[in-house]
Fold these 4 entries.
Entry 1:
Amino acid sequence: MFEEAQRLQKVIAQAGLASRRGAEELISSGRVQVNGVTVTALGTKVEQNDTVAVDGAPIEGREKLVYYVLNKPRGVVTTNDDDKGRKTVLDLLDEVDQRVYPVGRLDYDTTGVLLLTNDGEMANQLMHPKSRVDKVYVAKVEGVASDDKLAPLKRGVVIKGRKTAPARVAIERIDKAKKTSMIRLVIHEGRNHQVKNMLQKVGLPVSKLTREQYAFLDLTGLQSGDYRKLTGAEVRRLKSGDYKGYRRK
């Protein structure tokens, strides 16, 4: 079944059933069987001919790991299922056979770069705060921006009792007649509504928001709603922890 002896939690994660940490929880809670025997030891390794099952359902073979980058449009939710019947990002991946999951989230009305994969281990790695993956946003805001107004974002602002990490921020354009501005913001955190909350904190409410870059992945060649497979080199680079690639504009 497996090419070489591997840790049980890695096999479960690579099958797309859970992240590595989630797989460890499945094992610890007694929900995993190897050759019909329940296993709870996290150090367990499985061989090529071993049969692994989760909740009694065998993993017939590791699902092929796939990686896609999507240009998420407005009006689409970043989830696998929506109880309100709204279109989800998975509805856009009409030619993808594997069940993939979004890495992080983008708000319903936020557009831009979204990574989707069934590689739970890599997704967990990318979303872990220690990875410090740069996310580049461009926001249209209400109000005339200035360096003084944006300065607190470079130091960090307190939102819901927690201070944000220092952001890189720059003014792209100002329309004094319409009293709007375009702001470029680079962060590596991933709190809920973080960019909107940060700009609201300095008196510049967001009217339109796009994530132009995630790590080194951008929107090149992707119209709204389009997606593509990551290249082998891109996948290896992400797995190696080489996330750099922000292009200053």
Entry 2:
Amino acid sequence: MTKPSSKHQLYGWLLLLPAAVFLVAFTYYPTIATLAKSFFSQGTALRSSEFIGLENYAYMLDDEVFWKVAWNNAIYAFFTIPISIALALLMAIWVNGHLKFKSLARMSFFIPTMLPMIAVANIWLFFYTPEIGLIDQLSSVFGFESQNWLGDPNTVLGCIIVITIWKEAGFFMIFYLAALQTLSPELEEAAKLEGASRWYYFRRIMFPLLMPTTLFVLINAIINSFKLVDQLFILTKGGPDNASSLLLYYIYEVAFSFLDQAYASTLTVILLGTLALIAIGQFLFLDKKVHYQ
């Protein structure tokens, strides 16, 4: 094999240059700048920013709103991730089978994914609006009283969870559908010849072979569970009493409503660190168990 000439090497680096510039400008530099800013105070027109070490992190540990928001995010992730993945798998199996109007069913499941987040929020606002909303209109037929779904701390987070599951399940379904179509039909035929039930075939053959796709979907679901802003901005603005506020929305509020970019940088570092640890843990402990050679 001949060694590439310096001219060809130059061409290769030039082809990589645009992507490298964007990667550094919009990923590495903002991350490093955010980490650095978290060690400084918020400057004003009369007072410049000063190095304060870990004071922002100490303040975060005493911030009751941060802990409430973190708890909200944990509950939100706990419900949205497994339910979205389970629904996506069930929908993929259904539309991959012998079904009339299969294309229509697939399109119907995927349509919520194509809608912009702002449009989704406004659609569901029509459902949740007290008295005139679709849910209250239907419940009034059965004699139930009107409910302020987005104004009640006991129901508002559940309403946001329902919207997320409705929007994300169809997106994850596409990946499972693609994976199902790569499985050999001979596997199912052999299982039937051996007398295996559908549940046994799913549990011992299909689902293990879908584990690489499940890992990929799981990583995406975890990332999505920490980046919700649009729906909260339209529907609740984190209320009532921060009952629906999530970590990224709280960062947005701190940075752009309270104008404390230093503390927002601190919260961002914690968010990025949490996602990094989760991703590393998944690849270290799950990646080796899901691939079959």
Entry 3:
Amino acid sequence: MLLRPVRHTEEDAETIRKLAEAAFGTPHALEGEAPPQAARSREKILHIVRHDPAGSWLAEDETGQAIGAAQSHIREGTWGLALLVVLPGAQGKGVGRALLQRTLEYGRGCLRGIICCSRHPAAARVYRQAGFELHPTIRMRGIVDRAALGPVEGAAVEGGPRDRDLLDSVDRRLRGGAHGPDHEFLMRHNRLVVADDLAGSGYCYISEEGKVALLGATSRRLATRVLSAALLGVGEGAGVEVEDVTAEQQWAVDVGLRAGLELRAEGFVCFRGLRPPSPYIPSGAFL
């Protein structure tokens, strides 16, 4: 097995995208039928490579075939694991551990670390052995019951680039470091809802597909406001999804229950050197 840095090329980005499809069981993986989100996935991979070239690695077998990949980033002293995937046929052979070790070496100077982990038992074991605390999560999904959720209490408006200082300030308070350039990517591909008044500040990104991409706030009341506004902003009858809701986010569970969403146990959010941020819902890639 050979480990090499990911190159900032469409070819490497597509290789990692296909590895992720295969590892996560996406239909038609490796058959050349790219999903509608393929271009966005490649853009996200290249975004991380551009800003953190030393944090992205590919694993290849003796024939040169890619069998695994990992991406990580550092934002103001907070390290995050954006992706760790291994082809099913190569799992259990130390590929994932080797890739994780390279990303951890990249973040060795960071005091704080965050990982969003699937339910895969091997992944949870490796992250715990690396010193991370595992916090079980809930996934909420369904069609919003608008009448039951009720009107938003307080002002919540469409956000944009002018809100960068607010976003960075909330990030630093919750996770010790701003997301910085990741907000530029998130704004391109998601709707941003912002609340800012004398009671505090909060924000929520939600995609066109109705998936909450990232949320942070200075209080549970502000978090409830921006999440409710984001869910109500989805088209009538469209499905929504909120992932990586930890036990610390009971305010989010309450919103989901009022909205009529289905709850189920999912994976873990893992922290090292950092208490679980709250109120906060991480992004799977940008954390």
Entry 4:
Amino acid sequence: MQSELRKKLLDAFTNNKDEYLSGQAIADLLGCSRTAVWKHMENLRKEGFELEAVRRKGYRIISTAEKVTADEIRFGLKTKTLGKHIYYEETVDSTQKIAHRLSNEEAVEGTIVVAEEQSSGRGRMDRKWYAPKYTGVWLSIILRPNLPPHKAPQLTLIAAVAVVQAIEEVTGLQPEIKWPNDVLLNGKKITGILTEMQSDADRIVSIIMGIGINVNQKPEDYPNELKEVATSLSIEKGEKVSRAELIQVLLLKLENLYTIYLEKGFYPIKLLWEGYAISIGKNIIARTLTGSIEGKALGIKDDGVLIIEDQSGKTHHVYSADIEINS
């Protein structure tokens, strides 16, 4: 009950941003006394919200805290589905593990799991993901598309486009995508995406989409082995970036792209992905588990498979590989 009242309160502030809400209006909305309204405001202050209270005008939120709590994300969130149910923890071993559990417990589509720190975050090919506290976006999203399992890889590409669009809008920076789903800035990794599927034989039961974005790390925060290959938004922009705003914009971009995909298919997403891709048209080396393929990256198929043409003119379809760009 308490969380539902908090949702109503933050939705009201979101819909009346920069305007005052009177104590009586809030009391009527929540169905509580003016004294209870004051307690709600004090709880928001304790969480890090900066509030202004003006006699005969009411309350308004001036700024929020540095954390990415459920309340921080809800204040300003404009989605219809994604992020309407939020599971927040300070420290977790992996947001993916929690999202899998919630999915098995019938969590609704759009439920997100967000944490300030992951101790056992994972990337593609089960690599460890470096996720220090209060610096990045460590997020898992539960989707339940009515699709056959073979279309699941397309959702990873949708996520990559959504991340790029969100970073562009929030920071003005221009990231690029390295196949299949690494997002880069100035050649260094900024984002990792891990999509896992729960399915029956003929349909997807759920997609657990994990997204890790390096936001406010400083150069000295990275271990030596990562300094040459990873960066953060704040390093590239030269100033701190609001993690809560980035999550809000990311969820909105993802929701919009997901809706387009379900209504019109993958082709519009494919065009967007290829427009952001750093490797298309370039000579690359694709290192797979069975060997390396060198040639020109022609594009991707509708299932997200990379198409490479080697020097003899033969085309190769690459399902999983590490990519190195030659030129």
